[in-house]
Amino acid sequence: MQQSRNGNHLQAIAMLSALLSDCDSNGDRAAILLSQSSCYSRLQNIAKSRELLELAKMCAIDCRDLLSQVEMSEAALYALNDQYDLACEGFASVKSKYSDLLALPENDDFAAELDSRFAYALVEAGKYNDAIELFRALFKRDELNDKQRLQLYFGIAQLRAGNLSEARSHLFEAMSGSDRSLAQSASDYLASITSDPQVGTRLT
Description:
The chain is 76% helix and 0% strand. It is mostly helical and 204 residues long. The chain has a domain at 1-62. α6 packs antiparallel against α8 (108-124).
């Protein structure tokens, strides 16, 4: 998976395929298929990614922890395909179905990733108040991965809900982050508020 994170998706897929041939348990097969699916999603091959998720789900039928990850990945694929309402339904289902697992300390990172993906999908689906509620819960955490992106989307949600003061605060934080693309997006949204104070009430 480090190969995939470095952009070497095809090499990662080949390495995972080699590992798959040596698997002796369905749990291991499910984990490898899930990883392969992730690689294909990064290649924008949604059909192949979904096919592998279906196989992973069958292998993980007796492993609720793996099933929760597979189902979150299914919802993420909907978001990647701009099907945000379906993505929101999927993320909400995972939060409800696996609430006991998500509450365990050892699954805290997974819970945070789920809520982050869910919040992004809610913004894209135009469900800004629901997104704001989820972002507020996320920002109560001591540590957050990809905080700059979260600040940007939190700011967008506040802007489109008409909460301009809160929007400015989060967009400014996002603009100050290290990722130049996210910083530029935050700057553009801040400029829209400055040029037209009523912009937040008209955005859809």
